[in-house]
Amino acid sequence: MHSRFLSIWFRHLTTDRWAIKRPELKGEPFVLAAPERGRMMVKASSPEATSEGIYTGMVVADARAILPALRVFTDDPGLKDRLLKALAEWCLRYTPVAATDAPDGLILDITGCPHLWGGEQPYLENITATLKSKGYHVRAAIADTIGTAWAIARYGKSGLIVEPGEQREALLPLPPTALRLEPGILQRLEKLGFHHIGQFIDIPYQTLRRRFGEALSHRLDQALGTGHEPLQPIQPLPPYREELPCLEPIRTATGIRIALERLLKSLCKRLSKEGMGMRTGIFRGHRVDGKTEEISIGTSRASHSGTHLFRLFELKIPSIEPGLGIELFTLEAPIVEPVPEVQEAIWHTPGNNRTAIAELLDRVAGKTGMQCIHRYLPQEHHWPERSVKAVSSLDIQPDTEWQSGLPRPLHLLPEPEPIEVMVPLPDYPPLHFRHKGKVIRIARADGPERIEQEWWLQTGPPRDYYAVEDDNGARYWLFRLGLYGDGKPQWFLHGFFA
Prior knowledge:
Strand order of the largest sheet: 15-16-17-18-19-20
Protein name: Y-family DNA polymerase
Pfam family, one: IMS
Largest sheet: 6 strands, antiparallel, barrel
Family: Belongs to the DNA polymerase type-Y family.
CATH architecture of the largest domain: 2-Layer Sandwich
Number of domains: 3
Keywords: DNA damage
InterPro entries: DNA/RNA_pol_sf, Rev_trsase/Diguanyl_cyclase, SulA_CellDiv_inhibitor, UmuC
Shape: flat
C-alpha cells in the first residue's frame, strides 16, 4: 500500500481565529502586531488587509499609511502553536496520525483512511469544507510524500490530489521555494535563472551538491519519495473515563449514588496521581432498554476532590430516570487542567476563602448553569472596552490593579450603542438623548472625562465621557466621539451605573 499524506495550509491562521472569536471583525481589515526593535511590526494580516497590500513583517505605521482605517490588535506569540496543536487533535477524527507543521500547517498520514469517506476526493472535501465552515482559510493537497503534498498545497492548485507515483510531474512547474529551501539557496537558484523545479530536477545530484550543498538534493529526495522524511505525530491524551458494569440493573437513587461515588473515587485517584483536575464531568447511565441517561457538571477551577465533585453531581441525580434499570455507568472528564500543588493540602483547611468561593460558585452553576457566572480581571488599557478581560478560572491572577480613581459603570456594554442627543453648547452634557426609540431626559450630569485613543493600537478622535442621571435616578455613561469643529461628532451610550 502506498503511503499517502495530506498537507493543510492555514493561510491566515491567527487572524482567522480572531475573526471566529470576534464576529464583528469578519470582512474587516485588521492586523496583529508586536513591538520589535522599538517599532510595532505586523505579525499577521487578515485576508482583507492582505488584499490591500499589507503583509507580515511590515511596520504598522507604513500599514496605516496604506490603509488609515486599519485596526491593530496585540499579537499573542504563543497562539499559533496552541491553535495548531488543537487543530491537529481535531483532525484525529480523520486519521490516527496527525502532526503540526509550524508555523501555519498540518501534516496528516492518511494511509488507509479515505475509503471510509468514499475515496480521497470526498475525504479531502469533507476536511476542507468543515474547516472553512468554522472560519479558516485553508488550502490542502494529497500526495505520496510530505514534500509534494506541502508544495502543492501552497503553490499548486488547492484541493489537488496527486495520483500515486506522479509526484515528479506535479513538482515540475512549481517554483523552487516549494521545496522548503533556505533563503540563501533560493537566491542562488534565482541568480542562475532557475525559476521552476523542472529546470534543475534532472541535473545530477553531484553537481547540485557542489553548487548548493546537501540541502537541495535532500529536499528533492524527500519530495520525490526517494528520501525518508520523519513525521512526529501528536500524542492524544488518554481519555479520563471510568466504567462500572452492574450485575443487576440499578433502579434506585441510592444505587445511582453508590455507583457515582465508586466511579469518582477511581477517576479522582488517577487525576490526583497525574496532577490534573476536572473542569467538566459527564455521568451516564446506560439503561437495559437501550436509552442513556446523562448529567454533567462544570467547575470554576480544576478539582480532583471526590467529595466536592460528588456534591455537584448529587444536585442532578433526581433528573436521572432509571426506567427498567441501568446496567452500565460511565464517568468521563472531557476537560481537565493541572491542579495547583497546594490544593490537595488546603482543600479541607478551615478559612481557605478561595476554595470556599470556588465551591460556592460551582454549586450556583450546578443550579443555574455555568453561563450565568462570569469573572473579569483588569487590563492595562485606557480604552474602556479593552480595560477588562474575561477569565474562566479562579486561579488566574490579575496583572495590574483595578482603576479606582474615576467612576466606572457596573454594566459596560460590549459595544457602544449610538444615541441621538440635544446639546446646548459643545462641551456641555446633553439635555436629553434618544436610545432605541426612547427619549431620556437628563437631570444631573458630571464630566467630561477625556480618553484618548491608544496610538500603538489605533488612531482616531478622542472620547469625552459624561456620567448622567435621569429624573428617576437611573444613571448612564455617555460619550462623544470627536470634537465639534472637526466634523460632526457622534454620541454613544456605553454603560449603566448601579
